[in-house]
Design a protein that fits this description.
Bound molecules: calcium ion
Mean pLDDT: 88
Radius of gyration: 20 Å
Helix content: under 10%
Number of helices: 3
Strand order of the largest sheet: 12-13-14-15-16
Strand content: over 45%
Protein name: FG-GAP repeat protein
Number of strands: 16
InterPro entries: Integrin_alpha_N
Shape: globular
Keywords: Signal
């Protein structure tokens, strides 16, 4: 697929129920093939991901998947060639990876700024998934780092939470902010439902950066019922 270019004008016409019609054009501009690429939440995983499309409020994000070798544990890595076709004509091409996870690429507003961001799953264990996070800004998507947990969501004030299950009854929720489009972990909250214990763990002054004292955070994240 490397020699083909996406025809953005045609991309914007898609929107079929099961997927989105995508035209591939050769370098001469002639349309060579038209195919229907599934929406990512409809795509299949059989040990490898397939090409898929994310429909955003402001455009389309096309994910092209190819083999990318193996990681240090011998698990397969897939190369993800991404192209963002914004409705205003802005386009961006960038490379990510996908890994051994049945989770699909998703578009979610992880930082709560109103723009959909991108999560690319790298590996899923018993419960938690490691994902690359790409934040969307005016210049498209920027690699912001990786998270491990069951998901990431905005919790107000620019904070994002990533809850990870560490055992049957124990959860570790890490709170991040984005600084220069990089996720920075500020503090975490350890909860054990077997004995009802809960503790806030400050990370190198992160609570102060979030504008909270230990007491504030404990009241907000541990004592709230
Ligand atoms: Ca966002």
């Amino acid at each position: 697929m490397g020699v083909f270019m996406q025809a953005a004008a045609v991309l914007m016409l898609g929107g079929l129920a099961a997927g989105i019609a995508v035209s591939q054009s050769g370098r001469d501009g002639a349309s060579i093939v038209e195919e229907t690429v599934p929406a990512c939440d409809q795509a299949e995983y059989d040990g490898a991901h397939q090409d898929c499309v994310l429909q955003l409020a402001n455009g389309l994000l096309v994910v092209r998947v190819s083999e990318g070798g193996t990681d240090e544990w011998g698990d397969p890595i897939e190369r993800a060639d991404l192209s963002f076709h914004r409705a205003d004509g802005f386009t961006q091409s960038f490379d990510g990876t996908l890994g051994s996870s049945f989770m699909q690429p998703t578009a979610e507003d992880v930082d709560g700024d109103g723009d959909l961001d991108l999560l690319l799953p790298q590996a899923t264990g018993n419960v938690n998934t490691t994902s690359q996070v790409w934040l969307q800004g005016e210049t498209g998507f920027v690699a912001a780092g990786s998270i491990n947990g069951i998901g990431i969501e905005p919790v107000g004030g620019g904070l994002m939470s990533v809850a990870a299950r560490s055992s049957a009854a124990e959860w570790e929720t890490t709170y991040y902010i984005a600084r220069d489009n990089r996720l920075i972990g500020l503090f975490s909250v350890s909860t054990d439902f077997s004995d009802g214990s809960c503790a806030v763990n400050d990370w190198d002054g992160g609570l102060a950066e979030a504008g909270m004292t230990l007491d504030d955070a404990t009241a907000r994240f541990c004592d709230a019922d």
